Amino acid sequence: MNNSQFDAGSINEIKPGKTKRVDAANGKRMLVCNVDGEFYAVDDRCTHEDSSLYLGCLKGERIHCSLHGGEFSVKTGAALAEPAEIALQTYPVRIEDGRILISC
C-alpha cells in the first residue's frame, strides 16, 4: 500500500464543532473535523447519494448529510442513521507543530 501524507492546514483554522474541506494531492476530497479538540478526516462524499458532507453539520462526532439526513461517525466512519448504510472512509490524522497531517 502506497501511503502519502499531506498538510491540511493549521489546527487554528478549524474551531471545535467545525469542519474544513480539503483536497489531497491524489485528488481525493476530504472533510477534516474538530471534535472537542481532536481532529478526524473522512471522505467528503456521503455514501448514500454522493452529496458533499461539507454542506452538512457536525454535532459531537456525528456528521449529518444535508441531502437526505444520513449520519456518520467521523471517528469510525460508521453509518449511524438511515438512509446511510455504507461507512465512510476514514484517514489517520496526526498533529505536528500545530499542523494537521493526514495520511491517505
Automatic annotation (TrEMBL):
Transmembrane spans: none
Signal sequence region: none
UniProt-recorded name of the protein: Non-heme iron oxygenase ferredoxin subunit
PROSITE patterns to which the protein is assigned, alphabetical: RIESKE (PS51296)
One example GO MF annotation: metal ion binding
Matching SUPFAM superfamilies: ISP domain
Species whose genome carries this gene: Thiothrix unzii
Keyword Calcium belongs to the record: no
InterPro entries in UniProt: Rieske_2Fe-2S, Rieske_2Fe-2S_sf
Lineage top rank: taxon: Bacteria
Residue ranges occupied by any Rieske domain in the UniProt entry: 6-102
UniProt keywords, alphabetically: 2Fe-2S, Iron, Iron-sulfur, Metal-binding
Pfam families, per the entry: Rieske
